[in-house]
Amino acid sequence: MSQPILQIRDLQVEYATPNGPALAVSDVSLDLHEGEFLAVVGESGCGKSTLLFAIAQLLTYPASVTGGSVVFEGVDLTSLTPEELRQHRWRDISVVMQSAMNALNPTLTIGAQLADACEAHTDWDHERIAERSAEVLSMVSIDPVHLRSYPFQLSGGMRQRAMIAMALLLEPKLVIMDEPTSALDVVAQRLLMRQVETLRRELGFSVLFVTHDMSVVSHFSDRLAVMYAGEVVELGATRAVFDNPQHPYSQGLMEAFPSLLGEVRELTGIPGNPPSLVNPPPGCFFAARCPHATDECRELRPELVTNDEHAVRCHLINKVARV
After folding, report:
1. CA 150 and chain centroid, separation
2. What are residue 124's phi and psi, to 5 degrees?
3. What is the pLDDT of residues 140-170, one digit of tens each?
4. Which of 1, 130, 143, 266 is buried most deeply by CB count within 10 Å?
5. Residue 323 — pLDDT band, cuts 50, 70, 90?
6. Distance of CA 54 to CAs 47, 84, 97, 172, 176, Å?
7. Which residues contact 199 (CB under 8 A, 6 or more apart)?
8. Burial of 262 from C-beta contacts in 10 A (0-12 / 13-18 / 19+)
9. Computed over its alpha carbons, how large is the radius of gyration of the chain?
10. What is the value of pTM for the model shown?
11. Three-state secondary structure call for residue 194
12. 8 A C-beta contact, residue 96 and residue 178
Protein backbone atom coordinates (compact mmCIF):
# COMPACT_ATOMS: atom_id res chain seq x y z
CA MET A 1 0.00 0.00 0.00
CA SER A 2 1.29 3.44 -0.93
CA GLN A 3 1.79 6.31 1.49
CA PRO A 4 -1.45 8.04 2.53
CA ILE A 5 -2.39 10.97 0.29
CA LEU A 6 -4.78 12.19 3.02
CA GLN A 7 -4.27 11.87 6.78
CA ILE A 8 -7.05 12.93 9.15
CA ARG A 9 -6.07 12.99 12.81
CA ASP A 10 -8.36 13.53 15.84
CA LEU A 11 -10.68 15.77 13.81
CA GLN A 12 -13.44 17.53 15.74
CA VAL A 13 -16.27 19.65 14.36
CA GLU A 14 -18.83 21.50 16.48
CA TYR A 15 -22.08 23.25 15.65
CA ALA A 16 -23.02 26.28 17.72
CA THR A 17 -26.54 25.83 19.13
CA PRO A 18 -28.65 27.77 21.68
CA ASN A 19 -28.08 24.91 24.14
CA GLY A 20 -24.33 24.76 23.68
CA PRO A 21 -21.91 23.25 21.14
CA ALA A 22 -22.99 20.03 19.42
CA LEU A 23 -20.05 17.74 18.69
CA ALA A 24 -20.93 16.54 15.17
CA VAL A 25 -17.54 14.94 14.40
CA SER A 26 -15.63 13.52 17.34
CA ASP A 27 -11.92 12.55 17.22
CA VAL A 28 -12.06 11.01 13.73
CA SER A 29 -8.79 9.64 12.36
CA LEU A 30 -8.58 8.20 8.84
CA ASP A 31 -5.99 7.57 6.13
CA LEU A 32 -6.71 7.57 2.40
CA HIS A 33 -4.11 6.13 0.04
CA GLU A 34 -3.33 7.05 -3.53
CA GLY A 35 -5.88 5.50 -5.90
CA GLU A 36 -7.97 4.11 -3.03
CA PHE A 37 -11.77 4.16 -2.79
CA LEU A 38 -12.82 4.76 0.84
CA ALA A 39 -16.54 4.82 1.64
CA VAL A 40 -17.99 6.49 4.74
CA VAL A 41 -21.43 5.14 5.65
CA GLY A 42 -24.03 5.59 8.38
CA GLU A 43 -27.59 6.76 8.97
CA SER A 44 -28.69 10.35 8.45
CA GLY A 45 -27.27 12.74 11.05
CA CYS A 46 -24.24 10.61 11.94
CA GLY A 47 -21.74 13.25 10.77
CA LYS A 48 -20.78 11.91 7.32
CA SER A 49 -21.38 15.08 5.31
CA THR A 50 -19.98 17.26 8.09
CA LEU A 51 -16.78 15.19 7.96
CA LEU A 52 -16.64 15.65 4.19
CA PHE A 53 -17.10 19.43 4.39
CA ALA A 54 -14.48 19.64 7.14
CA ILE A 55 -11.96 17.77 4.97
CA ALA A 56 -12.66 20.07 2.01
CA GLN A 57 -12.68 23.11 4.33
CA LEU A 58 -16.15 24.11 3.15
CA LEU A 59 -17.79 24.44 6.57
CA THR A 60 -19.74 27.61 7.31
CA TYR A 61 -21.25 28.99 10.51
CA PRO A 62 -22.58 27.55 12.79
CA ALA A 63 -20.10 24.72 12.07
CA SER A 64 -16.38 24.97 12.77
CA VAL A 65 -13.34 22.73 13.14
CA THR A 66 -12.37 22.80 16.82
CA GLY A 67 -9.56 20.27 16.85
CA GLY A 68 -7.37 17.90 14.88
CA SER A 69 -5.78 18.13 11.45
CA VAL A 70 -6.51 17.33 7.80
CA VAL A 71 -3.16 16.75 6.08
CA PHE A 72 -3.21 16.46 2.29
CA GLU A 73 0.17 15.60 0.75
CA GLY A 74 1.98 17.01 3.76
CA VAL A 75 -0.07 20.23 4.03
CA ASP A 76 -2.54 20.77 6.88
CA LEU A 77 -5.61 22.18 5.14
CA THR A 78 -7.04 23.48 8.43
CA SER A 79 -4.16 25.99 8.69
CA LEU A 80 -4.51 27.51 5.20
CA THR A 81 -5.98 30.87 4.28
CA PRO A 82 -8.94 31.03 1.82
CA GLU A 83 -6.57 32.04 -1.00
CA GLU A 84 -4.17 29.18 -0.19
CA LEU A 85 -7.11 26.75 -0.16
CA ARG A 86 -8.21 28.03 -3.55
CA GLN A 87 -4.89 26.87 -4.98
CA HIS A 88 -5.67 23.29 -3.91
CA ARG A 89 -9.35 23.12 -4.87
CA TRP A 90 -10.15 21.70 -8.31
CA ARG A 91 -6.44 21.19 -9.03
CA ASP A 92 -5.75 18.74 -6.18
CA ILE A 93 -9.10 18.22 -4.44
CA SER A 94 -12.57 18.42 -5.93
CA VAL A 95 -16.04 17.80 -4.50
CA VAL A 96 -19.13 16.29 -6.12
CA MET A 97 -22.09 17.68 -4.23
CA GLN A 98 -25.32 15.92 -3.32
CA SER A 99 -28.31 16.72 -5.57
CA ALA A 100 -26.82 17.92 -8.85
CA MET A 101 -29.92 19.92 -9.79
CA ASN A 102 -29.27 22.21 -6.83
CA ALA A 103 -25.47 22.21 -7.19
CA LEU A 104 -25.51 23.20 -10.86
CA ASN A 105 -26.44 26.78 -11.78
CA PRO A 106 -29.80 26.55 -13.60
CA THR A 107 -29.19 29.81 -15.51
CA LEU A 108 -25.93 28.72 -17.18
CA THR A 109 -25.21 26.02 -19.73
CA ILE A 110 -23.05 23.05 -18.75
CA GLY A 111 -20.29 24.43 -20.99
CA ALA A 112 -20.40 27.85 -19.30
CA GLN A 113 -20.10 26.27 -15.87
CA LEU A 114 -17.14 24.14 -16.92
CA ALA A 115 -15.53 27.25 -18.44
CA ASP A 116 -16.04 29.20 -15.20
CA ALA A 117 -14.10 26.57 -13.25
CA CYS A 118 -11.29 26.54 -15.80
CA GLU A 119 -11.01 30.33 -15.90
CA ALA A 120 -10.89 30.54 -12.10
CA HIS A 121 -8.06 28.04 -11.72
CA THR A 122 -6.06 28.07 -14.97
CA ASP A 123 -4.71 30.44 -17.61
CA TRP A 124 -6.07 28.35 -20.48
CA ASP A 125 -7.38 30.08 -23.60
CA HIS A 126 -10.94 29.56 -24.89
CA GLU A 127 -9.87 26.86 -27.34
CA ARG A 128 -8.15 24.78 -24.63
CA ILE A 129 -11.13 25.21 -22.28
CA ALA A 130 -13.59 24.07 -24.98
CA GLU A 131 -11.37 21.10 -25.81
CA ARG A 132 -11.02 20.00 -22.18
CA SER A 133 -14.74 20.52 -21.47
CA ALA A 134 -15.70 18.26 -24.37
CA GLU A 135 -13.10 15.72 -23.23
CA VAL A 136 -14.41 15.40 -19.67
CA LEU A 137 -18.03 15.15 -20.81
CA SER A 138 -17.03 12.29 -23.11
CA MET A 139 -15.29 10.63 -20.14
CA VAL A 140 -18.61 10.35 -18.33
CA SER A 141 -20.47 9.19 -21.47
CA ILE A 142 -22.22 12.49 -22.23
CA ASP A 143 -22.20 13.75 -25.82
CA PRO A 144 -20.25 17.05 -25.97
CA VAL A 145 -23.26 18.55 -27.75
CA HIS A 146 -24.71 18.95 -24.24
CA LEU A 147 -22.13 21.65 -23.48
CA ARG A 148 -24.87 23.91 -24.86
CA SER A 149 -27.57 22.35 -22.66
CA TYR A 150 -28.95 23.79 -19.42
CA PRO A 151 -29.20 21.52 -16.34
CA PHE A 152 -33.00 21.21 -16.61
CA GLN A 153 -32.57 19.72 -20.09
CA LEU A 154 -30.60 16.75 -18.70
CA SER A 155 -31.84 13.72 -16.79
CA GLY A 156 -30.90 13.27 -13.14
CA GLY A 157 -28.20 10.75 -14.00
CA MET A 158 -26.74 13.01 -16.69
CA ARG A 159 -26.66 15.98 -14.31
CA GLN A 160 -24.82 13.89 -11.73
CA ARG A 161 -22.33 12.71 -14.35
CA ALA A 162 -21.88 16.33 -15.47
CA MET A 163 -20.94 17.15 -11.85
CA ILE A 164 -18.36 14.36 -11.92
CA ALA A 165 -17.01 15.71 -15.22
CA MET A 166 -16.65 19.13 -13.59
CA ALA A 167 -14.81 17.57 -10.66
CA LEU A 168 -12.34 15.90 -13.05
CA LEU A 169 -11.62 19.02 -15.14
CA LEU A 170 -8.16 19.66 -13.71
CA GLU A 171 -7.26 16.03 -12.98
CA PRO A 172 -7.33 16.20 -9.15
CA LYS A 173 -5.70 13.57 -7.00
CA LEU A 174 -8.67 13.36 -4.61
CA VAL A 175 -12.37 13.42 -5.48
CA ILE A 176 -14.82 13.73 -2.57
CA MET A 177 -18.40 12.64 -3.26
CA ASP A 178 -21.32 13.55 -1.01
CA GLU A 179 -24.12 11.02 -1.60
CA PRO A 180 -24.09 11.53 -5.39
CA THR A 181 -26.54 8.65 -5.96
CA SER A 182 -29.20 9.64 -3.41
CA ALA A 183 -31.63 11.18 -5.94
CA LEU A 184 -31.22 8.43 -8.56
CA ASP A 185 -33.12 5.19 -9.20
CA VAL A 186 -31.28 1.90 -8.64
CA VAL A 187 -30.40 1.44 -12.34
CA ALA A 188 -28.93 4.95 -12.60
CA GLN A 189 -27.09 4.40 -9.30
CA ARG A 190 -25.42 1.28 -10.63
CA LEU A 191 -24.44 2.93 -13.91
CA LEU A 192 -22.99 5.95 -12.09
CA MET A 193 -20.98 3.78 -9.69
CA ARG A 194 -19.54 1.77 -12.59
CA GLN A 195 -18.59 5.02 -14.30
CA VAL A 196 -16.81 6.30 -11.19
CA GLU A 197 -14.96 3.02 -10.74
CA THR A 198 -13.84 2.94 -14.39
CA LEU A 199 -12.58 6.53 -14.24
CA ARG A 200 -10.78 5.90 -10.94
CA ARG A 201 -8.91 2.93 -12.41
CA GLU A 202 -8.06 4.79 -15.62
CA LEU A 203 -7.02 8.12 -14.06
CA GLY A 204 -5.70 6.93 -10.69
CA PHE A 205 -7.41 9.45 -8.40
CA SER A 206 -8.52 8.62 -4.85
CA VAL A 207 -12.18 8.64 -3.88
CA LEU A 208 -13.77 9.53 -0.56
CA PHE A 209 -17.41 8.53 -0.95
CA VAL A 210 -20.07 9.47 1.59
CA THR A 211 -23.41 7.62 1.56
CA HIS A 212 -26.18 6.37 3.85
CA ASP A 213 -26.78 3.33 1.62
CA MET A 214 -24.21 0.62 2.26
CA SER A 215 -25.35 -1.44 -0.73
CA VAL A 216 -24.30 1.38 -3.13
CA VAL A 217 -20.60 0.94 -2.32
CA SER A 218 -20.55 -2.76 -1.45
CA HIS A 219 -18.87 -3.80 -4.72
CA PHE A 220 -16.86 -0.67 -5.46
CA SER A 221 -15.05 0.59 -2.35
CA ASP A 222 -11.76 -0.80 -1.07
CA ARG A 223 -12.37 0.10 2.57
CA LEU A 224 -15.43 1.03 4.58
CA ALA A 225 -15.72 3.40 7.56
CA VAL A 226 -18.96 3.15 9.55
CA MET A 227 -19.92 6.32 11.45
CA TYR A 228 -22.34 6.72 14.33
CA ALA A 229 -23.04 9.91 16.31
CA GLY A 230 -19.94 11.63 14.93
CA GLU A 231 -17.54 8.75 15.59
CA VAL A 232 -16.00 6.05 13.42
CA VAL A 233 -17.20 2.82 15.06
CA GLU A 234 -15.80 0.34 12.52
CA LEU A 235 -13.17 0.57 9.78
CA GLY A 236 -11.85 -2.17 7.56
CA ALA A 237 -11.74 -3.77 4.15
CA THR A 238 -15.19 -3.49 2.58
CA ARG A 239 -15.60 -7.22 2.02
CA ALA A 240 -14.51 -7.96 5.60
CA VAL A 241 -17.04 -5.50 7.04
CA PHE A 242 -19.86 -6.87 4.87
CA ASP A 243 -19.01 -10.52 5.46
CA ASN A 244 -18.34 -10.17 9.18
CA PRO A 245 -19.55 -6.86 10.69
CA GLN A 246 -18.26 -6.71 14.25
CA HIS A 247 -19.77 -3.57 15.79
CA PRO A 248 -23.45 -4.01 16.78
CA TYR A 249 -24.32 -0.85 14.84
CA SER A 250 -22.70 -2.21 11.67
CA GLN A 251 -24.63 -5.43 12.17
CA GLY A 252 -27.85 -3.43 12.50
CA LEU A 253 -27.14 -1.55 9.27
CA MET A 254 -26.53 -4.83 7.43
CA GLU A 255 -29.86 -6.21 8.62
CA ALA A 256 -31.71 -3.07 7.50
CA PHE A 257 -31.24 -3.38 3.73
CA PRO A 258 -32.34 -6.23 1.42
CA SER A 259 -30.09 -8.58 -0.51
CA LEU A 260 -30.77 -10.06 -3.94
CA LEU A 261 -28.88 -13.22 -2.97
CA GLY A 262 -29.48 -15.83 -0.31
CA GLU A 263 -32.62 -16.66 1.62
CA VAL A 264 -35.55 -14.28 1.91
CA ARG A 265 -35.47 -12.68 5.36
CA GLU A 266 -37.42 -10.04 7.21
CA LEU A 267 -35.69 -6.68 7.41
CA THR A 268 -35.13 -5.29 10.90
CA GLY A 269 -34.47 -1.73 11.98
CA ILE A 270 -32.38 -0.35 14.82
CA PRO A 271 -34.68 0.67 17.69
CA GLY A 272 -34.31 3.98 19.51
CA ASN A 273 -32.66 7.23 18.46
CA PRO A 274 -29.09 8.56 18.32
CA PRO A 275 -27.91 10.40 21.45
CA SER A 276 -27.85 14.15 21.92
CA LEU A 277 -24.61 15.58 20.55
CA VAL A 278 -24.94 18.58 22.88
CA ASN A 279 -25.02 16.40 26.01
CA PRO A 280 -23.73 12.99 24.89
CA PRO A 281 -23.76 10.03 27.31
CA PRO A 282 -20.55 9.19 29.21
CA GLY A 283 -20.09 5.70 27.75
CA CYS A 284 -20.57 4.21 24.30
CA PHE A 285 -22.82 6.43 22.20
CA PHE A 286 -24.61 3.34 20.86
CA ALA A 287 -25.20 1.71 24.26
CA ALA A 288 -28.84 2.83 24.61
CA ARG A 289 -29.72 1.11 21.31
CA CYS A 290 -27.42 -1.90 21.60
CA PRO A 291 -28.94 -5.26 22.60
CA HIS A 292 -25.59 -6.41 24.02
CA ALA A 293 -24.71 -3.35 26.14
CA THR A 294 -23.22 -3.88 29.61
CA ASP A 295 -22.60 -1.49 32.50
CA GLU A 296 -19.08 -0.97 31.16
CA CYS A 297 -20.56 0.12 27.82
CA ARG A 298 -22.86 2.62 29.49
CA GLU A 299 -20.16 4.10 31.74
CA LEU A 300 -16.84 4.01 29.83
CA ARG A 301 -16.15 5.51 26.40
CA PRO A 302 -14.68 2.81 24.12
CA GLU A 303 -11.63 3.45 21.95
CA LEU A 304 -11.20 2.56 18.29
CA VAL A 305 -8.88 -0.45 18.48
CA THR A 306 -7.22 -1.96 15.41
CA ASN A 307 -6.66 -5.71 15.14
CA ASP A 308 -5.36 -7.20 11.86
CA GLU A 309 -6.15 -3.98 9.94
CA HIS A 310 -9.76 -4.02 11.14
CA ALA A 311 -10.69 -1.34 13.68
CA VAL A 312 -13.73 -1.50 15.99
CA ARG A 313 -14.96 0.85 18.73
CA CYS A 314 -16.65 -1.65 21.06
CA HIS A 315 -15.85 -2.88 24.58
CA LEU A 316 -17.23 -6.35 23.84
CA ILE A 317 -15.15 -6.91 20.71
CA ASN A 318 -11.96 -5.39 22.09
CA LYS A 319 -12.28 -7.32 25.35
CA VAL A 320 -12.37 -10.54 23.33
CA ALA A 321 -9.42 -9.39 21.22
CA ARG A 322 -7.32 -8.74 24.33
CA VAL A 323 -7.95 -12.18 25.83
Report:
1. 27
2. -65, 150
3. 999 999 999 999 999 888 998 999 999 999 9
4. 130
5. very low
6. 10, 16, 14, 18, 11
7. 139, 140, 164, 168, 205
8. exposed
9. 21
10. 0.91
11. helix
12. yes
